[in-house]
Write the structure tokens for this entry.
Amino acid sequence: MPNIVTKTEACKILHLSPQRIEQFSKHPEFPGVRIGRKWVINADLLWEFLQIWKKEHPNG
């Protein structure tokens, strides 16, 4: 069973702003879905996604 977190929980865990998560969410490999006004994110895949993001965007 994967670890599922909300956008707020992901922000706290990773010390990111909600706007940064919104920016990440535009990427096709982002491990989350929007349900209504809430984000549901697979925390297990989020770390892997951040590594991909870092390679694609080395300056930010």
